[in-house]
Design brief:
Strand order of the largest sheet: 5-4-3-6-7-11-10
Structural class: alpha/beta
Shape: globular
Helix content: 25-40%
Number of helices: 11
Order of helices and strands: HEEHEHEHHEHEHEEEHEHHEH
Strand content: 15-25%
Radius of gyration: 18 Å
Distance between the termini: 21 Å
Bound molecules: S-adenosylmethionine
Largest sheet: 7 strands, mixed
């Protein structure tokens, strides 16, 4: 595809992800995808591994897994690709063509995942999806059924600072005015759910900052009209690595490679 054609096609898409499509074209996504990538601590090399990206949307993380050497990447989504929500599948399809990528795609709800439908994968990515799901524990059981080794989970967390496992329920537009947000578990609740879903080794890779920082940030959010003071103090995002079998410290370290974007 010639640069002008790529630029013009990219301009016609409503992008969620910020993706470097090559030839000097970077998509105008609302998501700061490269910044988020750095927080995931993805294995630096995925050489020869199979990867499932659940809720892939425009596919930034699927293409990144392929770039890191994965032998097979399956990108799945449901809501965004279906076309009735904010986005479509056009961004994923254009990015895949522009990057000359072999990432596969399948339209499937996370609740329908099973080894019979999609097989099993060495590494599963569940990024920015869990808090959208009405039945998060059941969903994690489905995710566990297709995970062979490592799950990388990124999610909104709420009730931050409560010691006991707890979750905030968003029956309406309580979280960011988005009616598709359902649950904000806290860090202990995410650990508990992952263990209940048969992940034996769970680590928090990126956790919410300490209370003084959260307090200052909450004031800044409230001042700019972004959120209520009490809610902003309790809400954040966190990243977890969860393994099906117990890992040695060296194995865990190996999976927490240096994230990089080239
Ligand atoms: C906030 S976006 C995150 C996109 C991408 N994973 C990321 O981290 O940038 C949430 C994604 O989850 C997908 N999603 C929501 N509910 C889903 C479901 N029940 N099954 C599959 N995907 C779902 C949406 O379509 C959307 O693409």
């Amino acid at each position: 595809m010639l640069p002008d054609e790529l630029r013009s096609k990219a301009a016609s898409v409503r992008w969620y992800h910020t993706i470097d499509l090559g030839q000097g074209v970077v998509t105008h996504g609302i998501d700061e995808s490269p910044t988020r990538l750095a927080r995931l601590a993805l294995p630096a090399s995925l050489d020869g591994q199979t990867v499932l990206d659940i809720g892939a949307w425009d596919g930034f993380f699927s293409f990144e897994a392929e770039r890191r050497g994965a032998s097979r990447v399956l990108a799945t989504d449901y809501y965004s690709w279906y076309g009735n929500g904010w986005g479509t599948k056009a961004g994923f399809q254009l990015a895949r063509a522009a990057l000359n990528s072999r990432v596969e795609d399948l339209d499937i709800d996370v609740m329908d995942l099973s080894p019979e439908r999609v097989g099993t994968f060495d590494v599963v990515l569940l990024l920015g999806v869990l808090y959208h799901l009405p039945n998060p524990l059941l969903a994690l059981e489905r995710v566990a059924s297709v995970s062979r080794r490592l799950l990388v989970l990124e999610t909104v967390v709420d009730m931050v600072g409560f010691g006991r496992p707890a979750a905030a329920f968003y029956p309406g537009r309580e979280l960011n005015g988005d009616p598709t947000n359902c649950w904000g578990p806290n860090v202990p609740a995410v650990h508990g759910m992952l263990r209940s879903a048969a992940f034996q080794d769970v680590q928090t890779v990126t956790c919410p900052p300490a209370a003084p920082y959260r307090a200052l940030r909450a004031v800044a959010h409230w001042w700019r009209g972004k959120n209520r003071l009490d809610l902003a103090f309790r809400q954040d995002r966190a990243v977890f690595h969860a393994w099906k079998a117990p890992q040695s410290a060296a194995d865990r370290q190996g999976d927490r490679g240096v994230s990089s974007v080239s």
